[in-house]
Design goal:
By secondary structure, the chain is an alpha+beta fold. It is about 55% helix and about 5% strand.
Length: about 375
Amino acid sequence: MSAVLRRLAGTAAVAAQAVLAPVPAAAVPDPQPPLSAPDTRPPLTAPGEQPSVAELLTDLQRLYRQTEQATETYNATTEKLQRQRAEVARLDAELARSRLALRSRRLDAGRLARQQYQHGGGLGPYVRLLLAPDPQAALDEGHVIGELARERARTVARLTVAERRQDALARAARKALDTQLGLAARQKRQRDDVRTKLAGVERVLATLTPDQLAAVARLEEQGVAKAQRELTTAGALPADRPAAPPAAGPAAPAADRAVRYALDQVGKPYAWGAAGPDAYDCSGLTSRAWAQAGVPVPRTSQEQWDRLRKVPLRGLRPGDLVVYFPEATHVAMYVGDGKVVQAPRPGGRVTVSPIAAHPILGAVRPAPGRPGQT
């Protein structure tokens, strides 16, 4: 956490724990501009004017949302980079084995060439037969020479295949390394993008008084409570109140183990790009919790939304993942009773919140035995 946020922690505790979006969970807000495009919207207030609490909240929500979107983009590139590094290592090892095999094939070819020359003496088979004192011995020797020639042909063919394989592996290894370097450069740009957006949040927070922070937090809580009531009144949530405590132990269902793990992380800090065990971002918490239950799921919120099985909100079960915002840039884990456990945003800590903490995109369910499958 930056020095600015640490200084604000004492006066902004309520705001740091508040959730992001005081709008109805079923509503879909207007898409934000792409991360690569500058924010060209006019300022909330004219120069010299004091922004209202609603305007401050809107500005903070926008900045937090952009930061989380940048974080999930960074996470996706980091995952690709890790896979690419593993692929480069695999290709390098395979190329080394291929080079050893090629060397062995060349030694075999040289050995057979020497044997054929030694047996044949450089003469053709008909000349050797005519000059031989023992024609039968010459025929027997010719059979041996012929077998050596056939073996040499086979060895040369294997040598040719090995040389082609080495060339192909060398090209693949160079291409994989180029891809890795490109991903590393992209990761650095995205890391810088996240840091820039975090600095923007800090600048806004640094301008707020304790009274303003408290007022923003109250308005945020009111919006979330309103959205939660609307979901409940509409019957959009499962009738699972009160929530049953998740079962414990290795024999417990995977979903119960995932929920218990996630709840055990409550109070740990949010850190962008983190997947535990000391800190988490939103998808770092959900992916780590399910991994601890023995069910690998995709790392980022977008991949979790794209690759896991969709379930209706009315059919939610503890352990399901609730995905937020049209771009699927935030995710939390349903724990029952209309609540989720989530790593909310920079400056916050893992907490249990109403499911209407943000505008809901939908929900997905990890499938034990079929990780990452739709």
